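Protocol step 4 of 5: obtain the predicted structure for the target chain.
Materials: sequence only (see below). No template structures provided, no constraints applied. The aim of this step is simply to have a reference model before the mutagenesis design in step 5. Sequence pasted as it appears in the construct record:
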Amino acid sequence: MSTPGNNESQSGNQSFGWESYSTGTPSDQEFQYAPPTPMSSPRISTSEVRNTGKGFFGALFDANFDNFISVKFAKVIYIIALIFSGLFVFFAWVLPALAALMNGSFGIFMAILVLGWIPAGAIALVQLVTTRLFLEFVVALVKTSENTSKIAENTRG
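Step 4 output (structure tokens):
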């Protein structure tokens, strides 16, 4: 059994405890400074990165999943989400106000028109923020994967 003062293991004289720390000044040989060597990394131009994809339909039918369509399709998904949020605001705020006006309830029409944008706008905003966060997460994940594969290709060859 070892104690802090006696750190000899059964397999040899290895000392991992308090004795390994010296209280004196270190010699100059222990702390020789070697300047860091600059790491050489291959540079990839942005035109090489952009031109390596197969295009939307080529990536869509890629059975190996070497090319991703989510970065190309994220803008379309976000525009669709904007349209759906606008339609939601229309159906949840404007359409009930118009229905109240058609029924002859001018007071209810004004109440919905003045106060109805708060819940409808809040729900539409939450929908847009959630969609945006999800798309940013997916795009960041795909770009990280693409950049990692490019780094792996450059270190192989």
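Step 4 remarks: The helical segments are 46-50, 56-60, 70-102, 106-115, 117-156. The radius of gyration is 32 Å.
Proceed to step 5.
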